[in-house]
Design goal:
By secondary structure, the chain is of the alpha/beta class. Helices cover 22% and strands 25% of the residues. The strands form three sheets. Strands 7-8-9-10-11-17-18 form a seven-stranded mixed sheet, with helices on one face. A six-stranded mixed sheet has the order 1-2-3-4-5-6, with helices on one face. The protein has a five-stranded parallel sheet with strand order 13-14-12-15-16. It binds zinc ion (ZN). Zinc ion is lined by residues 36, 38, 41, 92, 113.
Length: 336
């Protein structure tokens, strides 16, 4: 007789029927366990939410003031109808968590999005031993390798100073939750003023309230910003494409900050002059080290280079299986 797996995919997403909860459901459910507040992991209108305590304010900001959200300290266990659930740092953004699910001695871990490299704006990734590990594979192709972030920041600083010498502001496009704060924290504020789009500032304020030290930032549309325009570095969400509203201040150069910038055509595709590869996701070798650290017998691969990473894991002796969901988008082809 085959037993129902501890977690299975339903029309609303990953579901634990014994515990009566979903993990990162993509439609409203009764009880949602949320790895982090990015839009492809957290949707509005579930009856209750459980998330890691450091990310509670961010999830509340995203889900709305009426959302019923319980914050759980990292490592603390809760019993959901006989299933033990705990959350462990994923190192992706502030409050991002892996979900550990245990029932009758069987342990599954759902990674959510994660990175292993250090980041001062969030808790460092914690390997969690388990029987089955569901891993993301956003950059699960051998082409993806990140330099140490100090190298990337040095390159960004050089670019910023070159732009200053030409009398140009430096506009960096970066996602408003997570990446923008990591950038703000890592930039050298002695080079010039750092300005951020208001949607970034809203999130940065939540980070500051959570005790994350970020340098002072200004609104680029404020009167005070105009005097320092050509010396400034401005962080903007890619969706805003707000630069049109800023042109009256003067000249500027543009760049995009993302792991995808490893691919040579990606900056051009996004209509910017430069690309800086800094990611909140694990690169290929980080994924492999994270998988090994779980000591899991079975690996389910989701979100990213699924077939490529499954093949890699199989070649290394793992029992690896694709775990495709309607949320999984095919990443760009890597031409090498
Ligand atoms: Zn994410």
């Amino acid at each position: 007789m085959s037993r129902e797996p501890l977690l299975r995919l339903t029309t609303a997403g990953l579901y634990c029927s014994r515990g009566g909860f979903h993990i990162d459901p993509w439609s409203p459910v009764a009880r949602a366990v949320i790895t982090h507040a990015h839009g492809d992991h957290a949707v509005k209108s579930s009856r209750t939410y459980l998330t890691a305590a450091p990310g509670k304010m961010i999830l509340q900001h995203r889900m709305g003031p009426r959302a019923q959200i319980q914050g759980l300290a990292f490592g603390q266990e809760v019993d959901l109808d006989g299933v033990r659930v705990s959350l462990h740092p994923a190192g992706h953004i502030l409050g991002s968590a892996q979900v550990r699910v245990e029932h009758k001695g069987e342990v599954w871990v759902v990674s959510g999005d994660y990175k292993v490299a250090p980041d001062v704006t969030c808790d460092v990734f914690e390997p969690v031993k388990c029987d089955t590990f569901i891993t993301e594979s956003t950059f699960g192709h051998e082409h993806y390798h990140w330099d140490h972030q100090s190298v990337t920041f040095a390159t960004i600083h050089d670019w910023w100073q070159q732009n200053q010498s030409r009398g140009q502001a430096s506009i960096l496009y970066a996602y408003s939750l997570g990446k923008a704060q990591r950038l703000t924290a890592g930039l050298d504020a002695s080079i010039g003023p750092i300005m951020v789009h208001p949607s970034v500032e809203q999130i940065s304020q939540l980070y500051r309230e959570a005790g994350i030290a970020l340098p002072h930032t200004r609104d680029p549309n404020s009167d005070a910003a105009r005097a320092d325009w050509s010396r400034s570095l401005i962080i903007m969400p890619p969706a805003a494409r707000w630069e049109q509203g800023l042109t009256f201040h003067g000249h500027y150069a543009t760049a995009f900050v993302s792991g995808w910038m490893v691919l040579p055509d990606q900056a051009t595709k996004r209509g910017v002059e430069r690309g800086f590869p800094l990611s909140d996701h694990a690169d290929y070798s980080e994924l492999l080290s994270a998988v090994a650290a779980t000591q899991a017998q079975r690996i389910l691969v989701t979100h990213g280079y699924i077939s490529e990473f499954v093949a890699t894991l199989k070649s290394r002796g793992y029992d690896a299986t694709p775990h495709s969901t309607p949320r999984c988008k095919r990443p760009p082809a890597v031409i090498v």
